[in-house]
Specification:
- By secondary structure, the chain is an alpha/beta fold.
- It contains eleven helices and ten strands.
- Helix 1 links the parallel strand 1 and strand 2.
Length: 260
Amino acid sequence: MKIGFFDSGIGGITVLYDTLKVLPNEDYIYYADTLNVPYGPKPKDEVKKYIFSAIDFIIKQEVKAVVIACNTATSVAIEELRNKYSIPIVGMEPAIKPAVEKDRDANKRVLVTATALTLKEEKLHNLIAKLDNEHVVDLLPLPGLVQFSEKLEFNEEIVLPYLKEQLSKYDFNNYETIVLGCTHFSYFKDMFRKLALSHIKVIDGNIGTANNLKRILKEMNSLNEGNGSITFYNSGFKIQDKAGLDKYNRLFKRLDTINE
C-alpha cells in the first residue's frame, strides 16, 4: 500500500523529499490542491472543505497513512481528520521545540515564519505557550513565498528583494534561529541564509515529520519494500503529461541544489 501526501500546492514536496531519504522503498501518492492554493489568506471553514475533499480522495486510493504536508492544513483540521479516519494521519508542526531548546543562547530570539492562517490558529499559540517560557518567539507571515514557489519562481533577483523587505524590521544580531513554518518556505532556505547573519540557524519541521512517519509505520509493522514510485495528482487529476511531471522534477532538482 502507498503513503499519501497532501498539501495545498507544491510545498509538501519539500517534506516528501526528506521522507524519500528516510523511507526510500515506499511508494507514494502526492496530492497538490492546485485549484485552491493558497490556503493562507482564505477563511478557515473554506479551507477545511478543501482539505476534507482532498483527504477523502486520497483515502479512496487505499493508502496506509496520510501525511498532511502543510502547516496550515494541520493547524485547522488535523484533529478532525484523525477523528474521521482510522489510518494514521501525520501532521506538520513548526520546529519551535528545537528552536527554543535548552542549549540555545538565552539572550537570542527566535523568528517563526508561516502563513497568516497558521499564525492565527490556536494550535500554534498553544504550542508557543507550552514551549516558549522565556517569551523569545516572534511571528512573521510571508505569503509572498507561497506565490513565488507555486510559480516556480526561484530567481534571487526577484525573491531576495521581497525577503529583504520583510526581514528588514528585525536585527538579526538579536536572533539565533529562523523557523520555516510553511513547507513552501523550504524552497528558499538558501536565500534566508544569504540574508541572515552567519550564526543564524534556518530550520523546518520536515525531517522530524519524516522520522515520525517512519516510527508509526514501524510500530504498525507496515514498512514496505517498494521502489520509491510517486504518483502525482493536482486537485484529483492524475498527472501523466510530460509538462506536469517535469514541473515536479524541477522542484526535486531545486531541493537537490539547496541541499548540496
